[in-house]
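Q: I have 300 residues here and want to know how they pack in 3D. Can you give me a structure?
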Amino acid sequence: MTWQARLLTTALRYIEKRHLARAEDPIRLRQSFERKARVIFRSPQGTRSRWVALGAAWALELTGPWVRPGAPILYIHGGAFVMGSPMTHKAMLARLSQRSGRRVLMVQYPLAPEHSFPAAFDTCLSAYRACAADGPFILGGDSAGGNLALSVLGHAIAEGLPSPIGAFAFSPLTDLTFSGDSLVSNEKADPLLPASRALDTATYYLNGAPADTPRASPLLADWAGAPPLWLAVDETEILLDDTLRLQAKVVAAGGAVTLHQTNGLPHVWPMFHNYIPEARSTLNVLARWITHLSAAPDES
């Protein structure tokens, strides 16, 4: 681990993790995240953005002089279902766009607790259908956005809808029943997420809806026929088992999963690409994987 990453994880552990553990008002938490993101995360020079309609959703389209012809990335941001927006994740996805040469579409979906399940799922599914209707695409998400991306993908497979040529997720939340051992075993090791708030996330989002369905917990989906997946997770995360169990299930169903695993980095560490070399390295690895997808028959 680089000195920059050690410094970052120490700061997150003693400042942000404690803040998340104490915060009780999701609206104030959301506002705080938006303010911090504007200051902390920076897009590469030359990034261009505009809002576009995508099915029943709006999406922030990211382009730049680096964009080449090819399947766009449809991305669903994280934020525990209660916070985050395309604007908070814009810088990370602009960096990925720059490295991969792909246009990015970032879905704006309704947040809990004002809009509970299945509002976010339905909005993301509408965006998925619209993107699929335009041709080949790549699906991605992080954390709760990884949950939504994978839930929509599992639903699309079950319904026989067109699949993306590949899908990726940073530190995805795949099991809203929270049955993974790492939720307890990594409680102290995780430098960012307090395990004590995990059930709050599910309560705000589900609002009484069952957690043990594939639309809420993509770990429970039937993954036969899945496109290639790329998953990133750190060994110290409370959500480690959410990724490892999903990988095992997809592989058992005959799918291909590329696992990018680190040790000691915070939840969705590529967000910190302005600060730690490990974040930039991970984005580079993912960009190369995306580039290799261009050889897939669906994009030829």
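Q: Anything worth noting?
A: The chain has a mean pLDDT of 96. The first helix runs from residue 3 to 22.
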